[in-house]
Amino acid sequence: xxxxxxxxxxxxxxxxxxxxxxxxxxxxxxxxxxxxxxxxxxxxxxxxxxxxxxxxxxxxxxxxxxxxxxxxxxxxxxxxxxxxxxxxxxxxxxxxxxxxxxxxxxxxxxxxxxxxxxxxxxxxxxxxxxxxxxxxxxxxxxxxxxxxxxxxxxxxxxxxxxxxxxxxxxxxxxxxxxxxxxxxxxxxxxxxxxxxxxxxxxxxxxxxxxxxxxxxxx
Length: 218
Prior knowledge:
This protein is mostly helical and 218 residues long. The chain has helices at 2-5, 8-41, 47-59, 62-72, 76-84, 92-116, 121-128, 133-144, 146-161, 165-170, 181-190, 194-217. The longest helix is centred in the first third of the chain and has 34 residues, at 8-41. The chain starts with a helix and ends with a helix.
């Protein structure tokens, strides 16, 4: 199994997984922090609809999410974008987008719970002392939510690492191109290479174990 991990295909999949999961986590947190704060602190028209849209990637079957992304990028505007700017479908950007579509929903949920557990009183006091809403957010809310932010980022990274269905449909599983660890397991088992499949599975289990330990600690 150790010899299998030295395989160039698997080493590429490990590298792409680490890079794509990290980029996905950064993008997910960029969306999740303000969205979680908005849902936890404010009341606005259409909040129920936004809340429902955030939950859709969580409840939909993974293959349906991948198929939805594939159909979306076959529409006229996005198809022209792919033809004249750069390709997304079956390329590395599609891997990141497929991971983001699900992991961002988990990050938003975590951040909403985090901000709901923090009393808004400290922000209100800061605003009475001269802070604007934005300053109170950055100087008071964000420091108080730092543990929740770390937890949401860790959960988002782990969810991106284990993503399979959307990546298989939207990105494919091309060697040295869009192959990540989750699709590597499927590819290796499909060709009867059990040791390689088990080795990659154990590697992903180890990563998941570390992530769970970090979440418990945070």
